[in-house]
């Protein structure tokens, strides 16, 4: 009964989305406010209905209702509650439902919080959002219905892929989708602007919070995925340039570029055409990510729906939206007049450089991900594009980008002073120099470039701190004035500083763990010891244990340093009951200096065990960095100018009726 | 029925291969540290053909293990890194290389991003120069009579 209610709500949501797609845009064309307001109501109704559908499915999972095919295929009665819930989106049908639910949530948020938007812009935005909903709801209802019943109902389900049964991974998809789908807001705003033909700094200000929120969620989602890969896949890597990772990384790169170019548009009324194009690209890449993961073109743990029919359907949706958006862009772009002139060396110039490097990096990832598919389709030749390619093409672009980051916020708008800026960054340069020398002295081994990488990270951090110090006149003015300035500094300045510090911290982690990781693969019998990175590890043997839906063998490793016990690690090997799959759980001892990472291997013929150990220096900085970036976004989101809302348009910029505020 | 049989076979295959959770195993490692280091570097560049986007160094599949051992055998025989890689490419095809070769059919792959960067840089440079030229010509050109009159009017006002 609950399943039928959910199913009904899902179909009803499709109808409501159709109304949301047609009525407000039609109303905006005819200047009919009653029609335009339908968008607001429909967006809220759609969200409510999808919420009912989603909870319907969730109840089916929690109660292990095996009369639903989707529950049978992806759940098991012995699974812990958390994974019964996360199982809802751990499969194709359920994850699509989550996708549209989040889409509707964003639409609903615009309907509720977008009171200060001009009615015609709001109507068009909700209309475009509605059209995306229609496409995906139609896709779900016709090809991927999660509410399909099965008769006779089996007694037990097949279970969720055990490597997906993990707390971090439970929340990885919702964040990722919130990011993907969040860019639909920027997309809808861009299309609405192209339809109305009006675009100005106020537009950039309205789009900013949505883009920022999407970017934050995507940042966190990708970081969670990487964190999970690090401790679950069992070989200590954190990024593999896997096509599926790239599929989420490309929208992130485009979104990062969009955040920066929208600043130029908001403050200086320049880069309009480019910002609109980026908004379209960011969402197009999100759609492509959805397509790549579900089409069966790529095979990985993420490819739930290895079904060409569904792939073609999403490909169709993608071509309609991307093609339509680009066609509209091509026909209307010349209407958008360029404003604000600026010199190459200026804040605008720095942001253009940022966009240039980030979009090129995004293009490099795009080509590396899709080229093998294209080549095979055209010539039949099969090639692989792996980490060495991406490190060679993506990596070098990041170096000038990171060098430039501290300069950007110091440069003045319109025309900046490179020499003056360099002088203000002298302290940061000195700190960087010391850091490079210190890195040489401490490491003493490893690639000679690595200390420069450390220098880059320190440079970005020191640069961001210098900017805060400069803006508050620290060390120059009396302390009470410094404090006053600290309080009065706009939150977006703090946001920028934190986001950049986060990048720097992440760079430190990436460089250190890549350059100075130590590894040891060894066979140990119970009672034997070995050493790695100053730790002494004594292997105590292996004991069997029983988990809720798995059996495991837990190894015991006692870690000492200079004769003092540091910790006891218990790396284990698990064998899940349903589906029968083996996983490894690494034993990890974390410290500020790095992670000691121990994986238990097979029992050898002589009674010993294969054991693999790593010391990953500063590896946690990678995820701490992303958290700081997220935090920076959060501070920026609460900036006064975004909370208070955009000012009214200047009367001269539009002939349309004045927006009701 | 066939699906059932194939999935049963697949499950069996997974069960049999399941216990190995390791990539490089202790018994594979060469005594000669320099040689082992080279073997690891080569392994990182070779794709495990039965896995999802893993190098043979990361993979625990049987085929990856065989390839790792093969790489080490060839190295101990005294072959150079390039010879070892060529030998494996000759057997398994270009697909095995994680770093694609630079050749005619990969020209676009390797050059697209750098070219894009150069072209955009060039276009930006041109547009800045054009704009500068426009600004200079705008600032040096003589005012028309109407503009002068308008200017005087404004100046008098203030």
Explain what the structure shows:
The complex is a heterodimer of chains A (661) and B (158). Chain A is α+β, with helices and mostly antiparallel strands and 661 residues long. Helix content of chain A is 62%, strand content 11%. Chain A has helices spanning 2-30, 33-62, 69-74, 81-86, 92-113, 119-143, 167-196, 201-232, 243-268, 272-294, 308-332, 347-379, 387-393, 395-404, 418-424, 426-443, 450-471, 479-488, 491-516, 620-637, 640-644; strands at 518-524, 529-532, 535-546, 550-561, 564-569, 572-576, 581-585, 587-590, 594-603, 609-617. In chain A, the strands form 2 sheets. In chain A, strands 2, 3, 4, 5, 6 and 7 form a 6-stranded antiparallel sheet that branches. In chain A, strand 8 (587-590) and strand 9 form a beta hairpin. Chain A is globular. By secondary structure, chain B is an all-alpha fold. Chain B folds into 2 domains: 22-99, Cytochrome C biogenesis protein (Helicase, Ruva Protein, domain 3, Orthogonal Bundle), CATH 1.10.8; 105-157. In chain B, helix 2 packs across helix 3 (62-76) and helix 3 packs across helix 4. The longest helix of chain B is centred in the C-terminal third of the chain and has 34 residues, at 107-140. Chain B is rod-shaped, with a radius of gyration of 32 Å. At the A-B interface, helix 12, helix 13, strand 1, strand 7 and strand 9 of A face helix 1 and helix 5 of B.
């Amino acid at each position: 009964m609950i399943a039928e209610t959910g199913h009904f709500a899902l179909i009803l949501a499709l109808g409501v989305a159709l109304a949301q797609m047609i009525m407000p845009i039609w109303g905006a064309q005819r200047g009919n406010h009653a029609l335009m307001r339908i968008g607001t109501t429909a967006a809220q109704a759609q969200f409510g209905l999808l919420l009912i559908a989603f909870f319907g499915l969730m109840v089916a999972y929690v109660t292990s209702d095996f009369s639903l095919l989707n529950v049978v295929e992806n759940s098991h009665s012995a699974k812990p509650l958390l994974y019964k819930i996360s199982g809802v989106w751990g499969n194709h049908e359920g994850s699509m439902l989550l996708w549209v639910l989040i889409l509707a949530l964003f639409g609903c948020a615009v309907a509720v919080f977008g009171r200060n938007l001009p009615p015609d812009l709001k109507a068009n935005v909700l209309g475009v959002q509605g059209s995306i909903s229609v496409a995906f709801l139609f896709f779900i209802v016709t090809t991927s219905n999660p509410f399909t019943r099965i008769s006779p109902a089996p007694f037990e389900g097949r279970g969720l892929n055990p490597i997906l049964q993990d707390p971090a991974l439970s929340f990885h998809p919702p964040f990722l989708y919130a990011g993907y789908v969040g860019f639909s807001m920027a997309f809808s705003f861009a299309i609405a602007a192209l339809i109305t033909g009006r675009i100005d700094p106020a537009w950039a200000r309205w789009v900013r919070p949505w883009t920022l929120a999407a970017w934050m969620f995507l940042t966190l989602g990708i970081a969670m995925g990487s964190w999970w890969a690090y401790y679950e896949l069992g070989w200590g890597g954190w990024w593999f340039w896997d096509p599926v990772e790239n599929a989420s990384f490309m929208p992130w790169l485009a979104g990062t570029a969009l955040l920066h170019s929208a600043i130029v548009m908001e403050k200086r009324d320049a880069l309009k055409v480019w910002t609109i194009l980026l908004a379209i690209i960011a969402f197009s890449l999100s759609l492509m990510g959805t397509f790549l993961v579900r089409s069966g073109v790529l095979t990985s743990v993420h490819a739930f729906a290895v079904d060409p029919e569904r792939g073609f359907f999403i490909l169709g949706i993608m071509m309609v939206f991307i093609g339509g958006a680009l066609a509209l862009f091509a026909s209307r772009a010349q209407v958008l007049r360029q404003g604000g002139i600026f010199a190459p060396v200026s804040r605008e110039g720095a942001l253009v450089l940022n966009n240039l490097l980030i979009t090129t990096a995004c293009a490099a990832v795009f080509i590396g991900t899709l080229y093998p598919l294209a080549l095979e389709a055209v010539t039949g030749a099969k090639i692989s594009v792996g980490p060495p390619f991406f490190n060679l093409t993506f990596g070098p672009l990041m170096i000038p980008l990171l060098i430039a980051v501290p300069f950007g916020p110091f440069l003045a708008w319109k025309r900046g002073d490179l020499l003056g800026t360099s002088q203000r960054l002298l302290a940061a340069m000195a700190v960087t120099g010391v850091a490079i020398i210190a890195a040489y002295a401490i490491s003493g081994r490893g690639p000679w470039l690595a200390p420069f990488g450390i220098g880059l990270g320190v440079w970005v951090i020191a640069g961001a701190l210098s900017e805060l110090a400069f803006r508050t006149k620290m060390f120059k003015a009396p302390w009470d004035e410094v404090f006053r300035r600290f309080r009065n500094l706009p939150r977006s300045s703090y946001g920028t500083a934190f986001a950049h510090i986060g990048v720097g911290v992440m760079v430190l982690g990436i460089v250190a763990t890549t350059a100075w990781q130590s590894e040891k693969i060894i066979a140990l019998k119970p009672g034997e010891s070995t050493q790695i990175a100053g730790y002494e590890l004594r292997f105590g043997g292996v004991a069997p244990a029983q988990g809720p839906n798995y059996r495991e063998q837990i190894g015991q490793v006692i870690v000492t340093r200079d004769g003092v016990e540091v910790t006891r690690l218990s790396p284990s090997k698990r064998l899940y009951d349903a589906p029968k799959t083996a996983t490894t759980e690494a034993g990890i001892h974390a410290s500020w200096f790095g992670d000691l990472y121990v994986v238990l291997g097979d029992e050898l013929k002589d009674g010993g065990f294969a054991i693999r150990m790593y010391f990953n220096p500063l590896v946690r900085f990678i995820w701490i960095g992303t958290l700081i970036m997220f935090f920076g976004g959060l501070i920026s989101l609460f900036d006064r100018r975004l909370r208070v809302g955009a000012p009214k348009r200047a009367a001269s910029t539009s002939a349309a009726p004045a927006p009701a505020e | 029925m066939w699906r059932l049989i194939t999935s049963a076979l697949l499950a069996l295959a997974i069960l049999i291969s399941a216990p190995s959770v390791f990539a490089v195993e202790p018994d594979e490692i060469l005594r000669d540290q320099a040689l082992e280091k080279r073997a690891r570097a080569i392994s990182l560049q070779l794709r495990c053909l039965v896995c999802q986007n893993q190098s043979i160094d990361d993979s625990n599949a049987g085929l990856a293990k065989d390839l790792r051992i093969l790489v080490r055998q060839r190295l101990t025989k005294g072959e150079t890194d390039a010879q070892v890689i060529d030998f494996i490419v000759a057997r398994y095809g270009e697909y095995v290389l994680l770093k694609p070769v630079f050749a005619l059919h990969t020209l676009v792959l390797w050059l697209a991003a750098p070219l894009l960067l150069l072209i955009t840089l060039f276009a930006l440079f041109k547009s800045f120069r054009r704009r500068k030229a426009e600004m200079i010509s705008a600032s040096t050109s003589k005012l028309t009579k109407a503009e002068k009159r308008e200017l005087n009017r404004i100046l008098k006002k203030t």
